[in-house]
Amino acid sequence: MAEPASHPSVPVPGGECIIQGLTSNGQPFRPSDWAERLCGAMSCFRPEGYAGRNAHLRYSPYVRPTVLGGVKCVVVDQALRALQPLAYHFVMDFARDNDLQVIAACILPEPGADASQA
């Protein structure tokens, strides 16, 4: 039997997954700053050459906090899985261990962007 797309161990080829700050029964996850803490712990995982002034103060482009529909979330880029498999599994295990909802996502072009340029 195939696992549902929202299962934390199911990869989304070339896409992203979103860890929502809601448990499987819909309760908000606490502490309220969980997303920032998780992303802060993962901030050292970045692409080669991703530096610049104050780079050490930025979140990783692979694991970043956001708010969707009023719910704190963490967006996990599947590129992290190839770059640092242990870091990827750490994040996904965090979601599983805390019974957080995980959904598959894909990158959509910005409104008005020319699709032929993508």
**Total beta-strand segments:** 4
CATH top level is Alpha Beta
Q: Could you describe the largest sheet, including whether it forms a barrel?
A: 4 strands, antiparallel
CATH topology: Alpha-Beta Plaits
Mean pLDDT over the residues: 80
Main structural class: alpha+beta
Estimate percent helicity. Answer: 10-25%
Order of helices and strands: EHEEHHE
What is the CATH architecture descriptor?
2-Layer Sandwich
As a percent range, the share of strand residues is 15-25%
Q: Separation of termini?
A: 35 Å
CA radius of gyration is: 15 Å
What's the structural domain tally? 1
Unreliable spans: 1-12
Question: For the largest beta sheet, what order do the strands appear in spatially?
Answer: 2-3-1-4
| Fourth-level CATH superfamily | Uncharacterised protein PF12112 family, DUF3579
Outline, from the CA principal axes? Answer: globular
Helix segment count?
A: 3
Task: Provide an overview of this structure.
The chain has helices at 34-41, 79-83, 85-97, and strands at 16-23, 63-68, 71-77, 100-105. It is an alpha+beta fold and 118 residues long. It has a single domain (16-46, 56-107), classed as 2-Layer Sandwich (Alpha-Beta Plaits), CATH 3.30.70.2340. The protein is globular, with a radius of gyration of 15 Å. Strand 2 (63-68) and strand 3 form a beta hairpin. Helix content is 22%, strand content 23%. The protein has 3 helices and 4 strands; from the N terminus they run βαββααβ. The longest helix is centred in the C-terminal third of the chain and has 13 residues, at 85-97. A 4-stranded antiparallel sheet has the order 2-3-1-4. The model is unreliable at 1-12 (pLDDT under 50).
